[in-house]
Amino acid sequence: KAETIVANDFFLGEFREEFMDNARYLISEAYCRIHQRIDIADLSERLNLSRDEGEKWIVNLIRETRMGADAKIDLEKNVIEIHRPPLPIYQTVIEKTRGLAFRTQALGAAMSRTQGAPEAAPAVVEAQ
After folding, report:
1. Dihedral-angle region of residue 68 (phi above 0 means left; psi in -120 to 50 means alpha; beta otherwise)
2. What total of structural domains would you count in the chain?
3. Nearest by Cα to 56 from 44, 39, 42, 38
């Protein structure tokens, strides 16, 4: 669907291949973050590629190490095994608390609105 829209767009038509490659990369990156064992045929279908094209594209993706993990392809089972090293504990804490200040401020504002009090939340700067 997106390929047709981009191909028919006056301004984006010439960037169709680049758009599709980047879209495939984003989809495969999100899919690989969620799953540790990936069926090549399923991922190829999601990337709108034939099985052979998908296999070549995935091999090139792993070869370029754009996936950021140790990935191995088992061609007998037609699956990709992704092994990620565990995150350090401080990194896990940072990821869990990243939006905590914003969520707390939003919760306080929602509580103020339900009580009928005027909304006066102090500005919070999120540290990264």
Report:
1. left
2. 2
3. 44
Angle 70-58-74 from CA coordinates, rounded to 5° = 60
d(CA 29, CA 40): 14
pTM, rounded to two decimals = 0.57
Identify whether residues 115 and 102 lie together within a single domain. Answer: yes
Q: What is the pLDDT of residues 64-82, one digit of tens each?
A: 765 556 788 888 888 888 8
Q: What is the mean pLDDT of residues 83-88?
A: 79
- Are both 39 and 74 inside the same structural domain? yes
CB contact set of 109 (below 8 Å; sequence gap of 6+): 119, 121
Residue 30 falls inside a structural domain? yes
- How far, in Å, CA of 82 to CA of 68, rounded? 10
Same structural domain for residues 72 and 98? no
Say if residue 42 is in the same domain as residue 12: yes
Asked if 58 and 80 touch (Cβ cutoff 8 Å), the reply is yes
